[in-house]
Each structure stands twice: as structure tokens, then as C-alpha cells.
Amino acid sequence: RYLVTYSPSNENIDPKKMVIIWDIRTGLEKRSFSIDGTTVWPIFRWSKDDKYFARIGTDTLSVYETPSFGLLDKKSFKLLGIRDFSWSPTDNILAYWVAEDKDVPARVVLIEIPSRNEIRANNLFNVASCTMHWQKSGDYLCVKVDRFSKVKKEKGDQPKYSGMYYNFEIFHMREKNIPKDSEEVKEPIHAFAWEPVGNKFAIIHGESPNICVSFYGVKTGQTPTMLKRLEKRVCNNLFWSPMGQFIVLADLRANGILE
């Protein structure tokens, strides 16, 4: 329904019209925006029904509504240290995470739009990075957390980190109060993919040449259960069938191996 265009900065372009949102059906400009040098594409991320779109800024998250294209409630979310956000593929729910700040933990937060209600939050320590993976059916959200395994604090110095391990924080979106389960993996994670319509996910993990593919099943109130582990696979991408059950293990580098 809407098209977003970007025009690089030059003397012939109004800085306030570097990004324009158009109505595809009418060809009319709905709103224009200026951008700064830190912006990455896509600048805007849209809700599943195109009623809302959002952009991240320095310590802010701005949610806009259509068809007015104005800020929701005429104000942005003030979120010190926000790093990333992601819309649910089926509901007007937005997930974001903010980085750790000294003794203040990192947080993963779920909010409803347009009510702006915080429906779930989770505090995390020793966090290097988070990556959010929504299941296509919207039943689950997995937050992959890269964490430092050792933290050393010396008097008068900043904390020193070393070693990494990984957590999968699984949020059960259809359950009351959105319960969460966790799975810890010590090895590097190379890929993650939800089964689109089921309760399973797959990961590629390990150090070359001992790359493995593991499959997990998810149930409320339980640590994810490993269902199958495939040893010594040559792959770096996972592609589930749209209906689930079947998966392709693909190496998209020089080998071009499919399994």
C-alpha cells in the first residue's frame, strides 16, 4: 500500500525530503523525513497491517500511525540505550532491547501498539548483543543473547569481559502472561530458523570442521528439548518448508551444497 523512497543528499534535494512515503494507489506523497548519517536501511519497519511504522533513533523509538502519518500520541518512546526493535508478524506488538549500562541490566521488552502497554520484560546481564527471531505464525519470539562468560572488575577500572556463550530466550506469545523459557549453548551460533507453523526451531552451531545442526521442540514451562542433532554438516543457512516439517540445509558459499 505504501512505498518508501530515499534520495541521497545533494544540493538539488531538500534535506527534509530525503525519505518520502508515497501512497501507491494515489501516487500522493504522505510524509517526508530527513535522516542523519547513522541511519540504516530499512529506515522504517511496518506493522503487519500497515497501520503503524516505526524508526529507531538515538535513545528513542518513534512509532507513527496511518493514515495521519503522525507520531503515535504525538511523542516518541524515550529509551536510553535502545539497540534494535522488531514487529510481530501477526500482531501489533513490538519487541525491543536496550543495552546494559554499568549496573543497569540489558532489557528485552514487549509493548502493545497503540496502547503503549508494556506486556512483558526480561532483564539480562553481561550482554554483548541480542538478535530477535519471530516465528512466522507469531506464536513465539526467540531472543538470541550473546553473553560474556567472564567479567572482571578491577578497582577504578571499567569491567573487562572475556569469553562468550549464548542463550535462547523463548517467549510464548499465546500463553497468559507470556511465559519464557531458556536454552544455553556454549558453541558459536551460525544460524537460527523457526519452523513457520510448528513449535520447533533449528540452529547451526559449532567450530569448523565440526559444524552441527540441532533441532529443538518448545513446550511451555520446559527448557527447549533437543529432538535431533546432525554432526559434521557443511552448511551456513537453514530454509524451512512454508508448511513446516521439511528443511533444507544450505551452504551458500563456494561449495553450494544442499541437503
Please characterize this protein's 3D structure.
InterPro entries: EIF3B (IPR011400), TIF_beta_prop-like (IPR013979), WD40/YVTN_repeat-like_dom_sf (IPR015943). Keywords: Cytoplasm, Initiation factor, Protein biosynthesis, Repeat, RNA-binding, WD repeat. Residues 123-253 form the Translation initiation factor beta propellor-like domain. The chain is mainly β and 259 residues long. It has 3 domains: 1-38, no CATH class; 44-186, YVTN repeat-like/Quinoprotein amine dehydrogenase (Methylamine Dehydrogenase, Chain H), CATH 2.130.10; 190-259. Helices cover 0% and strands 51% of the residues. It has strands at residues 2-6, 19-23, 29-33, 45-46, 52-57, 60-65, 70-71, 77-78, 82-87, 93-98, 106-112, 118-124, 127-134, 140-152, 160-172, 180-185, 189-194, 200-205, 212-217, 225-230, 237-240, 247-250. The strands form 6 sheets. Strands 4, 5, 6, 7 and 8 form a 5-stranded antiparallel sheet that branches. The chain is globular and about 55 Å long.
Q: Helix/strand-derived class?
A: mainly beta
End-to-end gap: 38 Å
Tell me, rounded to a whole number, the average pLDDT: 92
Using only C-alpha atoms, the radius of gyration works out to 21 Å
Strand count: 22
Number of helices: 0
Helicity, in percent?
under 10%
Look at the structure and give the CATH class of the largest domain: Mainly Beta
Organism: Cuerna arida
Domain Translation initiation factor beta propellor-like: 123-253
GO molecular function: RNA binding; translation initiation factor activity; translation initiation factor binding
Keywords: Cytoplasm, Initiation factor, Protein biosynthesis, Repeat, RNA-binding, WD repeat
